[in-house]
Amino acid sequence: MIHGSVIVAKEVCKGCELCIQACPQESLGLSNQINHNGYRFAVLIKDNCTGCINCALVCPDAAITVYRQPKPVKQPTKVLESA
Amino acid sequence: MGQVLTMEGMEIVYEKPGTLTQTPFHFCPGCGHGVVHRLLMEVVEEMGIIDQTVGVAPVGCSVFAYNYMDIDMQEAAHGRASAVATGIKRVLPDKYVFSYQGDGDLAAIGTGETIHTVNRGENILMVFINNAIYGMTGGQMAPTTLLGQVTSTTPFGRESSHVGFPLKITDLVAQLPGAYYVTRQTVHTAAAVRRTKKAIEASFKYQMLKKGTCFIEVVSNCPSGWKMTPVEANVWMEKNMLPIYPVGDLKVPKQ
Amino acid sequence: MEENSKNAPMFMQGNEALAEAALRAGMQAYFGYPITPQSEVMEYLSAQAKKHNAVVLQAESELAAINMVYGAAGAGARVMTSSSSPGISLMQEGISYMASAEIPCLIVNVQRGGPGLGTIQPSQADYFQATKGGGHGDYRLLVLAPSSVQEMADLVFDGFKLADKYRNPVMILADGALGQMMEKVTMPPAGSLPYTEKPWATVGKPTTRERNILTSLHIVPEKMEEINLRLQDKYRRMRQEVRSEQIGVDEAEILLVAFGLSARICQKAIELAKEKGINVGLLRPITLFPFPTEAIAKIVPNVEAVLTVEMNAGQMVEDVRLAVNGKKPVYFKGRMGGMIPTPDDIVLEIETIAEKNRITQV
Question: Does the N terminus or the C terminus of chain C have fewer Cβ atoms within 10 A?
Answer without folding.
Answer: C
